[in-house]
Design a protein that fits this description.
Elements (H helix, E strand, L loop, with lengths): L15 E5 L1 H11 L9 E5 L9 H15 L5 H4 L4 H11 L25 H6 L8 E6 L17 H7 L5 H9 L5 H27 L4 E6 L18 H4 L8 H5 L5 H17 L15 E5 L4 E4 L6 H4 L2
Parallel strand pairs: 1-2, 2-3, 3-4, 4-5
Antiparallel strand pairs: 5-6
Amino acid sequence: MRDNIAAFGGDPAKATVAGQSAGGGAVWTLMAAPSAKGLLRADISASGAVSQPNDRATAMALTELFTKRTGLPATAAALKDLSGNQIQDLEDKLREIGPDSGSALALAPFADGSTIPLATPELLKSGGATDVPLLLGFTRDEFNAMTQDQPVADAALPAAFAAMGLPPSDIAAFRTAYPTDNAAQLLGQAQSDLLLRAPSFKLAEDRANRDQPTWLYEFTWASDAPRFKGASFHRLDVPFAFDCLEAPGVTAVAGDNPPQSLADAVHESWVSFITNGDPGNAWPRYTTEQRQTMIWSESPRVQADPFAAQRALWLR
């Protein structure tokens, strides 16, 4: 991109990379990779997710599991001629529930000792992300909408938490942090926090401690679509960021009248960040002194320390 973007009217000195979900996690990996140093002017991570752990030993174990379940070696030579649908079928086989199940993000960046010398959390903490500006955040509910039609009894929570690697004692802490949630919502929130919200918050904290330019947001506007009514779920912020509320499929997930004013505000902040490395004066940098966070609601606002109730859980 650096070597060729000028031919398309772009400026190689002003490159910004953005990603959502697993793509957001890939942004973290890229911004921390030594071979990418100096190539990017800014980064955007929306609901970023990285496999935990993503060290080399875990990667090797998952390649063995891939071969066991698919019959193919996990190599570029074996996979390069397959179609996207064929690759998806292989991933589905890898992710089947079983006693040897792998990570939900098994086909994601892992440390290989060279391109990615360390697992992403260690690489980021080592200062590998340098001073490249980062805009990151998450939605309020993320995966909660997926659990609403699945009744969960309170008695089932200890086993469900244990399956996620969380001790039963965390149930009380999550109830304190989310006092109005029922058991199903609490389980969905724990999944959302563990995979998406807590890692992004921790990254913002780590970068703020190093005085690295960082802006944090939470998208809280809730969908009015029947299937997702009342939820600010995973990916809902994307059509607002790209100002494409009239695109096909948006009303099915956002409802008939998503607020254009909110799309204008989110999109403007992204454009400003890509253009200037700063989302604008209305959105201050994230610091550990004030923890000012942009809350993207129908009436956007900056709020100081909105995750005080979750912080002890998220920073462990």
